[in-house]
Specification:
- By secondary structure, this protein is α/β, with parallel strands linked by helices.
- About 35% of the residues lie in helices and about 20% in strands.
- It is built from 24 helices and 33 strands.
- The strands form eight sheets. It has an eight-stranded mixed β-sheet. Strands 26, 27, 28, 29, 30, 31 and 32 form a seven-stranded mixed β-sheet that branches. Strands 4-3-5-6-7 form a five-stranded parallel β-sheet, sandwiched between helices.
- Strand 15 and strand 16 form a beta hairpin.
């Protein structure tokens, strides 16, 4: 087909064109949405042709084909449209058919403008000719993730249609939840066409999960069966949270006559695209009312699917682009493609499809579209998705939906609609400053559900606690009357404090591990958890690589590591002679020599002129010695008469000042800092001394660690309590003790005759749970996983 511009002028001076342009439409006529979309598109075509300013005399024709919600039939219908030389296709209705048609549209250079396909994968570069007015599911999942983050929920369960549409949407949801620290505990897919009994059986599986946050992403027809079955199972009640995507929320305003469905969706939360009110929309609704014979539409779009509005706008999007193309190019033509060989399907209908010569230009015109339709602003990004999507957060109450807030990429969840969507980079982070209006949840309560209900028909968590002698400051176990056992201590307090921060109650039971007389092996304790004898272990349990290979640990709740403990060397016996220690013997001899030399010099210089230096030899010797030694303290009484004597005395006094200052500083250091000298050796020094025996705490991993460093077993001595530490060090049965830092700090808090070397192996204490690869019961996995996350930030306030 070739359309050429005629030469006449219209009433307003614009170029008048003759001929017709055909566009295609792919809808599922076996669905209500498809039938309404067909009617809306036909109405749009009628409006375009009645308005002579749109195509200026060119008739727009619509050829509608039935895709029947089937990908293969949709592809076959698309081939028929291509054979009829359509310049663009409005549709397909379903995401599954869109994948096929988008490929063929790219091959034939025919733009595809879908009004309802939401699969995120359709925005990939391989679908160059695919555009859509419906919002990408990835953006919608960002809105849902923001709601989940806003209420502080950590785990969700995803229910979806087990097809490309459902799987792609849930995968997009998972991608946006992970950075927010939210985990999808269970993905439950429902095959299309599944019966109510099968749906009920699948829902029954969810009772094994404590998480009651359900996110539903499926077509409206299956949603009805899902919610009615969930209602019958008592799952639409207090404590449960149901969040639906717009495929379901879009129809909830239309079910007011369906009592069974209506009672099944009370209190659910949902997202749907925001449709602003406008004069154009009201005019359309009035015309729609005449066509459908409805008496009351009520509100902006009540009882009318948003996809119907998108279908109407898709025709106007194509029509405006065709007008711009004809104004610029003037022709529309199709050419035959290069023939395929017979072996490559050269005789099939696909090989005979013509190429839309101006298709690339029409695509660019559509991408540059910028107008306001009845569903809002129509403008595309380079991937073919609409710009600045806005979602309503809606709550089902009574016979209709109430809007409790809005969501945009740049603002997150807000109480009121932002004035305009910013064009700046998205700052979506799910901040807690966002908020919504009060939501009425299932069961009719306004209080936000915790999101977790521990199954009542399951046993509590069995938590092992090491039962040993001493160290009650960390873990204290006492046997009380009536066979009651109490558990306390730092480690128990941290565990209870962490559990108190979880958004749900977790029943647990402490089980002593050991007999309280002999310290149990901590490696055996860890292996008991790995073998599922216990669900978890709480106590002073060091995180090591070998243990982490068989179990999972929470985040460390206190710093630990290994250090060497030894006796102090008491230096009090040397204090009496400490005054000699500042100088070495050589320094003392040198100083004494200079004293004698200086005395001799002063006697020579003063003997003849100073009568105080005269007299009997015995007196002169006594005088000079007194003068020199008293000058050390600047208390000499004798006058110096000669000039040379004064000069010599000045030099001597300066020398005395230096010597005295150095001596005073050294002696002060000896009497304070060095008064008690530690003899604590490093770990390598101990290892290199075969005669030194090393103590370790009974049951600790330290024994194996030291043996790995080359210490023979006969050098190792196990010590069962802190009291034994002091005894062993005092009677020299061990030269040093290697233990974890918290124990050493506890020991040194009451013992002053011992000291510790610097830490040589960093570590930490954590709580133990069965490994995530061991397929533990699902209702145990979630609270223990959440406890891991909670400990990473909640126990920082606790310190020993």
């Amino acid at each position: 087909m070739t359309l050429k511009t005629a030469g006449e002028k219209g009433a307003y001076g614009q170029q008048v064109r003759s001929g017709a342009v055909t566009i295609g439409a792919l809808v599922a006529l076996n669905s209500k949405m498809g039938r309404e979309a067909k009617l809306a598109m036909e109405l749009a075509v009628q409006k375009v042709n009645l308005d002579s300013t749109v195509l200026n005399g060119t008739e727009l024709r619509l050829r509608v084909m039935d895709e029947n919600c089937d990908a293969l039939q949709g592809a076959a219908a698309a081939i028929s449209l291509f054979e009829n030389e359509v310049v663009a296709i409005a549709g397909p209705q379903t995401s599954a058919a869109s994948h096929f048609v988008a490929y063929m549209g790219a091959a034939a250079q025919v733009p595809i403008v879908s009004f309802s396909a939401t699969d995120p994968n359709l925005s990939e570069n391989q679908y160059d000719y695919f555009l859509r007015l419906a919002n990408n599911d990835r953006v919608q999942m960002m809105a849902i993730a923001s709601v989940v983050s806003l209420y502080g929920w950590r785990e969700v369960v995803a229910l979806y249609t087990n097809d490309d549409y459902g799987r792609s949407g849930i995968e997009a949801l998972n991608e946006v939840l992970i950075p927010m620290g939210v985990k999808i505990l269970k993905r439950l897919g429902f095959s299309p066409g599944l019966g109510k009994t099968d749906i009920g059986n699948l829902l029954a599986e969810l009772y094994e999960f404590g998480s009651k946050i359900y996110i539903v992403h499926m077509e409206a027809s299956m949603s009805r069966a899902l919610f009615t079955e969930a209602f019958n199972l008592g799952m639409i009640s207090t404590g449960f949270v149901w969040i639906v995507t717009e495929a379901t929320s879009n129809v909830l305003d239309m079910i007011y006559l369906d009592d069974e469905y209506l009672q099944s969706v009370q209190g659910i939360l949902g997202t749907r695209s925001f449709i602003p009110d406008s004069l154009e929309l009201q005019a359309f609704l009035n015309e729609w009312k005449k066509l459908k014979g409805t008496e009351e539409l009520g509100g902006v779009r009540a009882h009318l699917s948003m996809y119907t509005l998108y279908a109407y706008d898709s025709i106007w999007t194509i029509a405006n682009a065709v007008r711009n193309l004809l104004d610029y190019n003037g022709t529309i033509s199709f050419v035959s493609q290069k023939p395929f060989p017979d072996a490559a399907g050269g005789r099939t209908d696909l090989s005979k499809l013509k190429l839309f010569k101006e298709g690339a230009n029409l695509l660019q015109e559509i991408l540059q579209t910028n107008f306001t339709g009845i569903a809002g602003k129509v403008q595309f990004n380079r991937s073919g998705d609409v710009l600045h999507p806005t979602f309503e957060i809606v709550n089902m109450v009574g016979k209709g939906l109430r809007v409790v807030g809005y969501w945009t990429e740049n603002s997150g969840c807000t109480l009121s609609l932002p004035a305009a969507a910013s064009k700046s980079k998205s700052v979506f982070k799910g901040e807690n400053v966002q908020k919504l209006q009060d939501v009425i949840w299932p069961g009719g309560l306004a209080r936000v559900p915790q999101g977790w209900i521990f199954p009542t028909n399951t046993r509590p968590l069995l938590v092992a606690v090491p039962y040993k002698q001493g160290y009650e400051e960390f873990v204290g176990i006492k046997q009380l009357a009536d066979n009651v056992t109490s558990f306390d201590g730092f480690c128990i307090d941290v565990f209870k404090a962490a559990l108190s921060q979880l958004p749900y109650h977790v029943p647990y039971s402490f089980i002593p591990f050991g007999n309280g007389i002999v310290t149990p092996s901590y490696d055996e304790l860890v292996r008991s958890v790995a073998s599922k004898e216990f669900d978890a272990a709480v106590g002073d349990i060091e995180i090591t690589k070998s243990r982490s290979d068989i179990v999972d640990f929470t985040q460390p709740y206190t710093a630990s590591g290994l250090t060497v403990l030894a006796s102090r060397k008491d230096a009090s016996s040397n204090i009496a002679w400490a005054f000699l220690q500042p100088f070495t013997p050589a320094m003392w001899l040198t100083t004494f020599f200079f004293v004698l030399v200086n005395g001799l010099v002063m006697w020579i210089l003063e003997h003849k002129k100073n009568p105080e230096f005269r007299g009997e030899p015995k007196k002169q010797i006594a005088t000079i010695l007194w003068f020199i030694f008293s000058s050390l303290f600047f208390v000499q009484r004798e006058d110096v008469k000669s000039t040379l004597g004064k000069a010599a005395l000045l030099v001597w006094l300066f020398f005395v000042l230096i010597i005295k200052s150095s001596y005073t500083a050294s002696l002060g250091s000896i009497l304070t800092v060095q008064q008690s000298v530690s003899q604590t050796p490093g770990i390598q020094s101990i290892i290199n001394q075969p005669e030194v025996r090393i103590g370790y705490q009974t049951g600790s991993f330290v024994k194996n660690y030291l043996m790995q460093l080359g210490v023979t077993e006969d050098r190792l001595v196990n010590l069962s309590s802190l009291t034994n530490y002091a005894v062993a060090l005092n009677n020299k049965s061990v030269g040093a003790i290697v233990d974890e830092l918290p124990y050493v700090q506890l020991f040194l808090s009451s013992e002053c005759n011992f000291t510790a070397a610097q830490e040589f192996a960093k570590g930490g204490w954590g709580f133990v749970r069965t490994s995530s690869s061991s397929h533990e019961p699902k209702h145990f996995a979630a609270p223990l996983y959440t406890l891991t996350l909670t400990l990473s930030w909640k126990v920082e306030a606790y310190s020993f």
